[in-house]
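Database export, one record per block. Field names are fixed; values are copied verbatim from the stored entry.
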Amino acid sequence: MLKYISMLSSCFISIVFAGALKANIEVMYPNMDGIGGDSIGFHVLELALEKSGQDYFLKLHGPSVNQRSAKKFVERGILSIFDAGYQAELEQRFEPIYLPIDRGILGWRLFIIHQQNINKFSAVKDLVDLTQYIAGQGVGWGDIPILENAGIKVIKASRVSQLINKVEKQRLDIFPLGANEVYGFLDKYRNKNSSLVIDKNLVLVYPFGRFFYVRKGNTTLANTIKLGMETALADGSLQTLLENHQHFKDAFSKANLKQRKRIDIETPNLTEKFKNIDPKWWYSF
């Protein structure tokens, strides 16, 4: 009898253990450009999985990949997920999770300018004034059609260093970047004796954000992430993460967004799914 009970106990333990292994589903995240583990996407995903209360665990995929490769790997099932700035066409290839992991901060743009133009930009009051000036952006950046749709002329370059150099030589007037990234970009790329500064008067705002995308049909993972992100937004932990993350904290500690003249422009060709994002997700004050 004792032997029978022991056998039943062993069998029960084996079933529970096997079930636990099965429930602990691995989520594979891309090592984007070799810095995936430091990215805001990795940390928000980690938070969302934790807050979901589900049995998922997060793992960083070893090899460094670019975004193009990451997308292919998600389609093949090698990776579980990637994150990227909004692009309408991605809806056709992937299951989008339209909860902005950055709360739309990437759509709050500050300008790198030449210090000789500080007074000019201090006098800018609206979009009409701003369209007098030429902006620089990287080739293929999703912001280009947004700026051009607003009537802002854009000069393109293949590297950030080239755009910084063009502002330095006053071949273009502004280099718009996200409020979270502009200070780091300027520190990294300007020369030691640079005459470049970040304009203190303006912030250009348009509907934009960074989102997670999973393989088509992977609604279980998508719903798990949605649940965790909703919880993280509601309890304030998502905002706390953004305010303390090395790649986002500048937007809240240096940018002085509340004190700036805000100019709003439209993002063309927004899909209905994007338009239906709950307003609570967009950063405001």
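Remark 1: The chain has two domains: 20-104+209-254, 108-205.
Remark 2: Residues 1-22 have pLDDT under 50 and may be disordered.
End of record.
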